[in-house]
Amino acid sequence: MSRIFKSKTVLHHLPRDPEKWTWCLVIIIICAIALTPMITLAIIAINPSENVWPHLIANVLPDAIFKTIVLLSGVGICTLFTGTLTAWLVTMYRFPGCRVFEWLLPAPLAAPAYIIAYCYVELFDYAGPLHRGLGMIFSEADAIQKWFPEMRSVGGAIFVMSVALYPYIYLTARAAFLNQSGHLLNVGRTLGCTKRRAILWIALPLARPALIGGLTLTAMETINDIGVAEFFGVQTITLSVYSTWLGRGSLTGAAQLSLILLLFIFALIQIESLSRQRQRFYQANSSSPSLTPREKMTGKNQWIATGICSLPITLGLLIPLATLAGYTLPHLSSASFMTYLIHTKNSLLISSLAAMITVITALLIGNAKHLIRTKWLLNLSCIASIGYAIPGTVMALGILMSMAALDNIIDSYSRSLLGISTGLLLSGSLFAVILAYVIRFLAMATASIEASMKTLSPHISMAARTMGHSASATFLHIQLPLIHPAIATAILLVFVDGMKELPITLLLRPFDLETLATHIYSYASMERFEDTALSALTIVLISLGPAIFLNRVTNWRQFQNKKITRNSLRQKNLHMRNSGSDL
């Protein structure tokens, strides 16, 4: 009887509506497409055509794993400190320039880490503008040059990636601090906590989930990078995959390294999950966050806070922008604008197509989860969105192998049926690049759209269904217009990340296609970065708007919270007045 009851329970949770079955099938297809590159990599790594494990274990893996861990640890510590400190200052205090810093602190997201790396190497190089300027002022410029930091090192890579990626921590930390109730800190102060202890024991523990989320994004972006790692000579696991594939021509070795890298990433995620397995984070009275105004700083503290907030903006945005502008203006007359326009057109085309297809796929997943609220569908959607945790180099390798296998199958059938060889239809095509973009950035679009769809009342769909509308018609004509801000945000985010993406484009693009990112990488590899400064400046300027827009969303949440607080206080005062008049 218990088995019959369990089977009935399972059948009860399965959708009975044929239209819902269609949506389930859509999710299954999306999940299968997203997993195909990883499954292909695993099959090739487990069944290699050549035995390269001894060479990898003896010569590649020890140094690559060590440098990857050092890079992750250094970037994680620096971004966590910088992002949390600046978020706390602009959220809790008033000091000169605090309103401006609220908007500018996320701005370094507009500059990809590899562009910042190229700028600092050019700046600190022996023939760079800094050394030339010191030579004009001091007679012993060569002796002063020895005191300059060596940028092409692990320390230089940590510095560059920290100033480029700290906004991930800043945005998540600031959102967490804005949503914390000011009563908690006040209660801690009344119980004898100093201001510093209240921050360390109350505010930071409550913000821990948000900080871990931002730290995870930072770690994923650090692992994904090959531009900074190759330019600075830091042989990470991701760079080892790239060099083993293209430098040594070993596809099997690259697949095996990719499998180890995937295991490394999933181990990091599992460690983070186990670290807070039994911890829960609750905030009382979440409908009315901080009721206390921001404290005004006075004396030297206000200028210290201004300097602290100015430093990451200067290092991560202003200095790279000034360097790019300094190299762009003298080379404008000799620049090939026709080539520049072609590269810009290619970047805009690929990023736009990838953004539209990614958001459409995310809408399909979001609507299916909205219709069918079952655990197995939730797990499938999580699997479909796992691509963001996979480095672009590994994604490109998996896509290339999958497309090559599919091309071989098509060619075999074409030869047997028509006697015609189709050759390579999908490998090295624009389709492969866009597919890799969609799989990698799907998690970003899905998160934005699902967060908006969760705010929709289920009564809207029920009312539409009672009026004769199907689930698809309800989704197209009612739900989509209601979540259009989230759709626009998702398109913008995917578009900007597509403009900056380097590994996928570099490895999967057709031979005759060059984008701004690949153009920058090619010329920087030949030590001719000044010839591509205009392309780098274009990427930064295009990405600046969306980077600031991310902070606008947070500021809008703060405005809504203050509005709720003011309305609740007005209602309380009105209630007290009415009670007094009744007496």
Number of domains: 2
CATH architecture of the largest domain: Orthogonal Bundle
Neighbour order of strands in the largest sheet: 1-2
Mean pLDDT: 78
Counting H and I runs of at least 4 residues, what is the number of helices? 25
Q: What's the Cα radius of gyration?
A: 27 Å
Beta-strand proportion: under 5%
Estimate the helix proportion, in percent: over 70%
Shape: globular
Contiguous low-pLDDT stretches (5 residues minimum) are 1-14, 284-291, 559-566
| CATH fold node name of the largest domain | MetI-like fold
What structural class should be given to the helix and strand makeup? mainly alpha
Quaternary organisation of the protein chains: single chain
Q: So what's the CATH class of the largest domain? A: Mainly Alpha
Q: Gap between N and C termini, in Å?
A: 66 Å
**So, the CATH homologous superfamily of the largest domain?**
MetI-like
Secondary-structure element order, N to C: HHHEHHHHHHHHHHHEHHHHHHHHHHH
How many strand elements? 2
Largest β-sheet summary: 2 strands, parallel
Protein described:
This protein is an all-alpha fold and 583 residues long. It folds into 2 domains: 223 residues, MetI-like fold; 262 residues, Orthogonal Bundle (MetI-like fold). It is built from 25 helices and 2 strands. Helix 2 crosses helix 14, helix 9 runs antiparallel to helix 10 and helix 19 runs antiparallel to helix 22. The N terminus is likely disordered.
